[in-house]
Amino acid sequence: MQYTVRPKYLKHENRKSTALIVVAHFNGKRVSKSTGISIPLQAWDVESKKLKKSCPGWSPAEQLKAQRDLSRLDQVLNQRALQISADEGRDMNADEFTETLAAFVAGARDVNRTEDGQSEQPNLIEYLEEFIPSATKRRNKHARNDGERITESTVQQYTQLLPVLVHFKNWTGLSMDLRKVDVRWHDAFLEWGSDIELLGPATLGKHIKSLKRLFYYAQKDGLEVNPAPLSNEDFDKPRQPKNQVQYLTREELEKIKALDLKGKPALSLERDRLLIGCWTGLRVSDLGRLNMKMLLKSKKEHSYIKLLTQKTRKKVAIPVLKDVQEVLDRRGEFPRFRTEQSFNAGIKELCRLAEINEVIEADKQGTVLVERKNEHGKKYKEEVKRKIPGKWEKWELLSTHSCRRSFASNFYGFFPNQVIMGITGHSKEEDFLRYVGVTEEQNADTFMELYLDKMRKNGLL
After folding, report:
1. Phi-psi region of 22 (alpha: psi -120 to 50; beta: other; left: phi over 0)
2. How many Cβ atoms sit within 10 Å of the Cβ of residue 239?
3. Closest by alpha carbon to 22, among 98, 95, 84?
4. What is the pLDDT of residues 179-230, one digit of tens each?
5. Which of 180, 203, 231 is the last residue in one of the domains?
6. What percent of the chain has pLDDT over 90?
7. Secondary structure of the chain: what % helix, strand, coil (to 5)?
8. Is residue 71 domain-resident?
9. CA 212 and chain centroid, separation
10. Are 197 and 164 in contact (CB under 8 A)?
């Protein structure tokens, strides 16, 4: 049986999206029916007669879901045609075609129960595809009140997980049944992710964290799930390496301040943003939101910045330190935000000009080839961005992430950890110490130094 899929509308003055329809011919009779799949008008490639890989206003998750729905439609129609051929020795007719398509649109499956007698339900990938579009309407798993919802940054993590699961399934052929995702599945995922996909421990840890959260929601939705992601301590993220995010020392920040940037207004802007980032500890997503309305006075007449962080939705109050106040006095406002890309490039250029060129052995993002399989098992290679180990000059390794790390590392040991964590937004001291790259032994040494200093000042030594 042959059929074609095409948009119902290719152009329309009042429409931004269109349904996909399926067209087939039976004994000269044309049958046209809706697939139940909707896409943006711009998402269809007229020449190749296929979905585009991307288009404005269409998220990767939505594109992937549409592609998977079309693949499932093809599978359903062909399986039905093969069944009719095997049972009755004839081709599918128009009525059977219409009935099969109607069942697909209604969400029906070929069977209601699996071979082992378990009820049919969405698999892990299908559930994630359905979960992402409405995730921000759901209550945060760790919410302190009913009003807290899943944040956009968390949804982004789920969106990043989706294609990873598809590649994992295509490569290994392992089941995506929510009931079969156990510790062995977890171990296979980590092994594939590290050896084949060349993902680092931090990225794999992020995906495992997302999986554990996702199983929590799947169980709340009444689906049958394997208990391992929810309760087995072996279903955990891989051991995390020491934080490799480079930070700028106080001395290095002074060298950047001393740069003569006359005639370079764009770079001067990025310097001011860098200084504010390093002396507030804010993420780049919050630096771009700063405005003078967030600037308040405490009861003791100290200036501070008060805001709700975009990523974690935590309220923070950050004192305005000397370097930040100097920028505000000179500009009369917070530096305007351009783009994260320009900020990243600006940080590297500033640090290069300031000769922050110590050679460091670390991982740096670059392009590598990874081997993958498509849904039919055919291997192919694709260029991806990954961390590459090597020796680099320090300025090459600095980025927007260095701002927050610089704040935490420069003040570690000067103030109690809990005070710094109240500004950086870390909830656990264990996470904070890992973030600043401090071992248990170094933490003990810092404690002893502070202890001896306090004892001397109080005349007890």
Report:
1. beta
2. 7
3. 98
4. 999 999 999 999 999 999 999 998 999 999 999 999 999 998 888 899 999 9
5. 231
6. 43
7. 50, 20, 35
8. yes
9. 15
10. yes
C-alpha distances (whole Å) from 213 to each of 155, 217, 310 are: 11, 7, 20
pTM over 0.70? The answer is no
How far, in Å, CA of 305 to CA of 242, rounded? Answer: 31
Between CA 122 and CA 177 the distance in angstroms is 8
Angle at which helices 322-331 and 265-280 cross, to 10°: 140
Question: Nearest to residue 75, comparing CAs of 302, 453, 376, 363?
Answer: 376
Are residues 27 and 56 both part of a single domain? Answer: yes
- The token duo for 353 is 């000009």
Domain ranges, residue 55? 3-105
Please tell me the distance from the alpha carbon of residue 16 to that of residue 28, in angstroms, as a whole number: 33
Please, what's the b/e burial string for 251-274 (b: 16 or more CB within 10 A of its CB; e: otherwise)?
ebbebbeeeeeeeeeebbbbbbbb
Judged by DSSP in three states, 390 sits in strand
Question: Is 448 inside any structural domain?
Answer: no
Measure the CA angle with vertex 134, ends 130 and 138; round to 5°.
115
Element (H, E) at 376: none
Q: Is residue 362 part of a domain?
A: no
Number of domains in the chain: 3
Q: How many CA atoms lie less than 13 Å away from 94 in the CB half-sphere?
A: 11
Is 113:119 a contact under the CB 8 Å cutoff? yes
Between CA 247 and CA 395 the distance in angstroms is 10
Task: Locate 127 and state its tokens.
Answer: 């559930």
Could you tell me the CA-to-CA distances from 281 to 202, 303, 396 in Å, in that order? 21, 16, 21
List phi, psi (to 5°) of 150.
-60, 130
Minimal CA–CA distance to 174: which of 161, 160, 158, 191?
Answer: 191
What Rg do the C-alpha atoms of the chain give, in angstroms? 28
Helix (H, G, I), strand (E, B) or coil at 227: coil
Do 64 and 191 share a domain, yes or no? Answer: no
Phi, psi of 300 (to 5 degrees): -95, 15
Question: Which tokens hold the place of 381?
Answer: 């290679």
**Amino acid identity of 344?**
N
Q: pLDDT per residue over 269-306, tens digit each?
A: 999 999 999 999 998 889 989 999 999 988 888 999 99
Is 44 a domain residue?
A: yes
